[in-house]
Each structure stands twice: as C-alpha cells, then as structure tokens.
C-alpha cells in the first residue's frame, strides 16, 4: 500500500481528494464530532452548556453528555427535567443551524451515489440538504418522541409537543410553570421521552426502511465490488459498534473500497484494509 508511508496532512488530504474523485459511491459515517461547533458544543464544552442551560449546573450537570440521564434523576424536579429536555430538543433539532462542515461535505459528495449513517440525533444531515431517504439514524432522532413503556410502537412528532411546552418554561430556572404542561403519551398518558436510543424502551420500527436502504446500499457495492469510499468523521469510542467497527468491516469486504477516518483524537486505522486516518477535526473537509 503506497500511502502507508504518508504522514503529512497535505499528502493525506490530496489522497482523500483522489479517492473521492475515483469513487462510484460514498458512504458517510458521522459521530458526535461532526456536529461539534463552537458556541453550541453543549455536549463537550462546559462553557457552552452553562451559556445555554445555567440553571442545570446546580444539580451537578456540566455538559449535555453528563445530562443524558437527567430525565431519570429523581433528585431534580420533574418540571425542571422537562424544562431542560424541551429546550434541549428544540435547540438541537430546530434552533441551532448545522455547522458549516455539513455543507462542505454535501458539496464534496454531490455528484456521487451517497448514503449517510449517523449516530447523531440532531437531524443536521437532512437540514443541510442531504436526501432524507438516504440517511439512517440507528440511535434515533429528536424529531420524534415516544412512550417510555412503550404502550405501542408509534412515535409522535416532537415539534408540536415542544411548542406547547416552551412558552411555559421560566428561563431563570428552566422550570415548567405547571405540571399540566409536562408531556405525556397521547395514547396511555404515561411518561414519554425523545425517540433516541437510551434503553430497551427505544422504538426502532419506523427506522427499518432506512436500515434496509443502508444494507442494500452496502450490499450493492460488495456484490459487484464497485468502488466505494467510506468517509467516517468524528466517530470515537462512545458507540463504536454503530460507527467505527461496521465501517472497517464494510471496507474489509470490498477489495475496491477505502476508508478515510477524520478524527482529532482517535484517527488510528487497521493495517489490513485500505485506510488513512487524518488527525484533524471537520475543518479539514474544506481543504479536500
């Protein structure tokens, strides 16, 4: 493999450009790093979290990553938990704009047969202009919410639900003014949460079509050994069974495929596949 000796980022970038040009299909795999952006990086940055959700810090939460379990923390009043959750869903899914890296990536792939698999639940790919029918979100999406039992396999649109709640949230405490505004299941009136993977209660049924589309896309390139480029961005070791490991395995099964792994902290790639690791963040996309 002639590129094994490449160490300079400039060499890696020019090889990436060459691989994109030669590819018949591009599979994009994105983890949390793809959505990280100064000012709205609430999952990692304590400063950004405090700027958006200051009242939650007193309960011992410093980032949205810490606060993933907040909804189930009985020491925090339910009206505060839902005040945070409704604000967070609104910000992530509707208010924050997709970081510029999404538009850059879209233009890099626009003439190619492209499919996206992402562990992110913010809808940024769709909102940046990627084809909704060619996106698979195995961890769910804040676009939907569901019963926590769940009493049925139905998911419900989040937007009308949070629009009902938001006017009743006190910005100084993030508390909902009355428990009557706390979201409940439209069917059984039980507890609800966003349709994001967080336990056995997660409903995946409505994602089966997207999952099948993803499998068919990968199998098409494997069966005919067509030129497939996998571009994996910002996928670390939080959910590697959804991102890193399957991508390596897909490349392993197709002699005409390559992997570009863009990751500032974990760029390592296996030596038995055609792969390069670029130890940078999403800003490198604009140089390709």
In which range does the helix fraction lie?
25-40%
Share of residues in strands = 15-25%
Quick one: how many beta strands?
11
SSE topology string: HEHHHHEHEEEHEEEHEHEE
Describe the structure.
33% of the residues lie in helices and 17% in strands. With 288 residues, it is of the alpha/beta class. Helix 4 (78-95) crosses helix 7 (158-165). 38% of the residues are buried.
Summarize the structure.
With 288 residues, the protein is of the alpha/beta class.
List keywords for this structure.
288 residues, alpha/beta, six-stranded parallel sheet, three-stranded antiparallel sheet, 11 strands, globular
Task: Give the secondary structure arrangement, pairings included.
Layout: H1 9-22, E1 25-30, H2 32-35, H3 46-57, H4 78-95, H5 100-109, E2 113-118, H6 124-127, E3 135-136, E4 140-147, E5 155-157, H7 158-165, E6 169-170, E7 175-176, E8 192-196, H8 208-223, E9 228-233, H9 244-252, E10 257-262, E11 275-278
Parallel strand pairs: 1-2, 1-9, 2-3, 9-10, 10-11
Antiparallel strand pairs: 4-5, 4-8, 6-7
